[in-house]
Amino acid sequence: MRLKKITLREIHLPLIMPFETSFGETSLRRILLVETDVDGISGWGESTAGEDPFYSYETVETAWHILRDFLWPILKDQEIASASEVWDMLARVRGHNMAKGSLEAAIWDAEAKQKNIPLAKLLGGVREEISCGVSIGIQPTIQHLLAKVEKELAAGYQRIKIKIKPGTDIEPARALRERFPRVRLMVDANSAYRLEDVALLKKLDSLYLIMIEQPLGWDDIYSHAQLQRQLDTPICLDECIHDVEHARAAIEIGACRIINIKLGRVGGHTPAKRIHDICQAKSIPVWCGGMLESGIGRAHNIAMSTLPNFTLPGDVSASRRYWNEDIIEPEVEVTRQGTIRVPSAPGIGYSPRLDRMESLTHRMEVLE
Questions:
Q1: How far is CA 368 from the centre of its chain?
Q2: Is residue 173 located within the same domain as residue 304?
Q3: How confident is the model at residue 20 (pLDDT cuts 50, 70, 90)?
Q4: Active site residue 262
Q5: Which of 296, 246, 254, 312 has the alpha carbon at shortest distance from 275?
Q6: pLDDT in the model for residue 13
Q7: Between β-strands 235-237 and 258-261, what pairing exists: parallel, antiparallel or unpaired?
Q8: Annotation says 163 is catalytic
Q9: Number of domains comprising the chain
Q10: What angle do CA 210, 120, 103 make, to 5 degrees?
């Protein structure tokens, strides 16, 4: 395979409802899409970098810069035997996984189309459908939260995740557990707490959560190990895990019992597979987290979630939970049983809606 051209495109996609976490509220997503031309075949990827450097130091601006000025020059006109080589070819650029992941994923899509097989099969996926959970942002009142969860459960979602932060944590979680005693429930702190908050976090043990996601510092694996020893509830690491070495360290020192794999955060399908494999060998379950992706990123998440150790429902949910109108067709839909059927068409299995993208495009650059 030879990479002939890449097209960078920034679209602005408004959310149906604002989404609030411990580090802020989002109502409009600036999304960087990457289209690759590999031997005349188009592949699509999406950078999950945010508008601001709060979840990660990467932003849409940094990803655009790294893709244009560093990653494209490394790969242009290079002979690539398979997409699995791309991650190592880009290794001389340190960090910037969200930029790397968007380009790497697009080349995986192109290779799957070239071989006329679904991306899930090319990755080694084993499922024809994946289980879905849902992520609910911080709500203005507990009554709003209860009503929202009731709606999502009625739609079939198999697991509920709520965002928490200091002052909005124990009471919402307790109210949900009392109203829905059998629901699979977890909380996500997005690094909002410190180790000194252990007494507060221990109160969550009585609520029978399936996990507490990333309670402490975004780069602090060691303190999570100290915290996990004091909690009955499993800790799941998200922001701390950027590569397979982080995963290995977290597992070996007991910093977590579950790992969330986000394609952009770890840099694409190849590093995601490596993290998946070490977690599987160590009996650490994994699941796919969400980053308010458009349909392009959502399609890649579906394919990744077919790998065998993705045994917990992920945050991959229906397009219509977030967007009035997505940029792919058909849109991602969730069955009444809380699953998404894995598409059987070649590549990511969904067709980009170029007319819709054009109407949302704020800038575009073609590199060839």
A1: 29
A2: yes
A3: confident
A4: yes
A5: 246
A6: 97
A7: parallel
A8: yes
A9: 2
A10: 95
Please check whether residue 109 lies inside any domain of the structure: yes
Same domain for 263 and 221, yes or no, is yes
Instruction: Name the amino acid, one letter, at 27.
Output: S
Q: Give the list of residues 6+ apart from residue 228 with CB closer than 8 angstroms, or none.
A: 234, 235, 254, 255, 256, 257
Residues 237 and 286 occupy one common structural domain:
yes
Is 313's pLDDT higher than 90? yes
Could you tell me if 19 and 290 are in contact, meaning their C-beta atoms sit under 8 angstroms apart? Answer: no
Inside any domain, residue 76: yes
Which contiguous run of DSSP H or E holds residue 366? Answer: strand 361-367
Q: What is the mean pLDDT of residues 345-365?
A: 98
Range of the domain at 57: 3-116+351-367
346 falls within a domain? no
DSSP H helices, 198-268, are: 198-202, 221-228, 244-252, 263-266
Residues 28 and 6: their CA atoms lie apart, in Å, by: 25
CATH code of the domain containing 147: 3.20.20.120
77 and 225, same structural domain?
no
| Catalytic residue from among 202, 262, 273, 282 | 262
Looking at the DSSP bridge assignments, the partners of residue 163 are 188
Determine the 3-state secondary structure of 341 from DSSP. strand
Q: Are residues 133 and 175 in the same domain?
A: yes
Q: For the residues 161-172, what does the mean pLDDT come to?
A: 97
Spot the catalytic one: 163, 202, 273, 282.
163
